[in-house]
Design brief:
four-stranded mixed β-sheet; binds 4'-deoxy-4'-aminopyridoxal-5'-phosphate; alpha/beta
């Protein structure tokens, strides 16, 4: 049994106080500070399989999974061995290595549907932010156009162009979403409501010849999970291509997590998961759409700092040194990170994805049952094995405004009741829950046992 959270709080509180003296907010990425759920962040010291352990020795079933990478569970022995082996041969060379080509080949080979491989060339970078930043620079350089379309509530990392948000009443002029982003940069990004093809068509009718690209989360999971309507991504491809613009599909979060070929693979392979969660029109032989560029992160690095962009060879070959679009990185293709990513992808077979799907189904329906039992109106949002919940209404939100209309205040008490019972959920209602193939019956049992009290806490919030 996990030790009580009361005991753990003292130690974590001391850690947090100390961290705040040396690190802004005590954290190196804002969501870790528990701002939206309140309370004291847990300071983790180790992780194994489905569990994480804090500095007090309290163990939690982990449903954060490092925000996505840990599909095999934490510290999988084969991944750790591969990392140790690579480390013993040197930490970083700043020169090209055979393993980078192995990983590029594996990414190319895995992203396939109907025999079509949309990822023809791959470049390795270190973070998802770099992957999307490079993808949009590449789209701009390739098309010779400056405007970019993104969707409200979609997160693509924190580069200036992508930290833009819709201004109130001004559908076509975005504002900086962060201090420090120049208004002139944000104004080159047009932010549209998600799942609204009419809005996309209208902007393209007006400015289509100036638009370099649409960037879209393959299945959005950074405003909670909000799956695309059936055919939405395919329509984006059609609209973009009709105007000489590119479609950049951001699979940093979904890539190699929701299925072996990511969300694009699910949407285009007619797999049962796609049918179940997408309302998709059955098996398809030929992909319904082709992205021009795809970004990857998280799983592709197996828990190490590694991300990638890939896509059409003619577009990718516009990157330096072949073409005029500049991109570089001291640690790009780092040998330790490549070893972790390669080993993780090689181990992520059909059995792993079946386990992820089954665990996601079990947990999401158990949460829904518990919330329903406690009389909490809610919606279960699912996209493949990614899921999240919105509170206050049983109507499924289809865009950011609808997600924001929920009773978010119910999540903090729910989150803390789970944490007190030894289950670590994402510390924000606007995040997806991440399962791993290591979540066995015991770990799932702990989650299920904790749910009734947490649902009660949400009900009385
Ligand atoms: N794109 C998406 C869809 C993401 O979910 C994230 C990270 N959550 C990013 C880009 C940015 O990746 P990173 O945090 O590695 O910079």
């Amino acid at each position: 049994e996990p030790t009580t959270a009361v005991a753990s709080r003292a130690g974590n509180a001391e850690q947090f106080a100390r961290a705040q003296r040396s690190i802004p907010g005590g954290v190196n990425s804002p969501v870790r500070a528990f701002r939206s759920v309140g309370g004291t962040p847990r300071f983790l010291v180790s992780a194994q399989g489905p569990y994480v352990t804090d500095s007090e020795g309290t163990e939690y079933v982990d449903l954060v999974s490092s925000w996505g990478p840990a599909i095999l569970g934490h510290a999988h022995p084969e991944v750790v061995a591969a990392v140790q082996d690579a480390a013993s041969r040197g930490l970083s060379f700043g020169a090209t290595t055979p393993a980078e080509t192995d990983l590029a080949e594996l990414v190319r080979a895995r992203v396939v549907a109907g025999g079509v491989h949309p990822v023809e060339k791959v470049r390795l970078v270190s973070t998802g932010t770099e992957a999307t930043m490079t993808a949009i620079r590449l789209a701009r350089g390739f098309t010779g156009r400056d405007l970019l379309i993104k969707f409200a509530g979609h997160y693509h990392g924190h580069s200036d162009s992508l930290l833009a948000e819709a201004g109130s009443g001004l559908a076509t002029l975005a504002l900086p979403a962060s201090a420090g982003v120049p208004a002139a940069t944000a104004a080159l990004t047009i932010v549209l409501p998600y799942n609204d093809l009419g809005a996309v068509r209208k902007v393209f009718a007006e400015r289509g010849n100036d638009i370099a690209a649409i960037i879209v989360e393959a299945a959005p999971a950074n405003m909670g999970v909000v799956p695309p309507g059936a055919g939405f991504n395919a329509a984006l491809a059609d609209i973009a291509h009709a105007h000489g613009s590119l479609l950049v599909v951001d699979e940093v979060l979904t890539g190699f997590r929701v299925g072996p070929a990511g969300w694009w693979g699910l949407e285009n392979s007619g797999s049962p998961v796609a049918e179940l969660h997408l309302d998709a029109p059955g098996p398809v032989d030929v992909p319904a759409y082709l992205p021009d560029l795809v970004t990857f992160g998280k799983v592709v690095g197996g828990g190490m700092p590694l991300a990638a962009l890939g896509g059409r060879a003619d577009v990718m070959d516009t990157l330096a040194p072949l073409g005029p679009v500049y991109q570089a990185g001291t640690l790009s293709g780092n040998p330790i990170a490549v070893a972790a990513g390669l080993t993780t992808l090689r181990l992520a077979d059909a059995g792993v994805y079946a386990a992820l799907d089954a665990t996601a189904a079990t947990i999401s329906s158990a949460v829904s049952d518990a919330l329903g039992g406690a009389g909490v109106a809610h919606s279960v949002q699912r996209a493949g094995n990614l899921f999240s919940f919105t509170f206050g209404s049983s109507r499924a939100p289809r865009n950011y405004a609808e997600v924001q209309a929920q009773e978010a205040f119910r999540y903090g008490p729910f989150f803390h009741a789970m944490l007190d019972a030894g289950v670590s959920l994402p510390p924000s209602v606007y995040e997806a829950w991440f399962v791993s193939a290591a979540h066995d019956d015991e770990a799932i049992g702990r989650i299920l046992a904790a749910l009734p009290r947490a649902a009660e806490a949400a009900a009385t919030a």
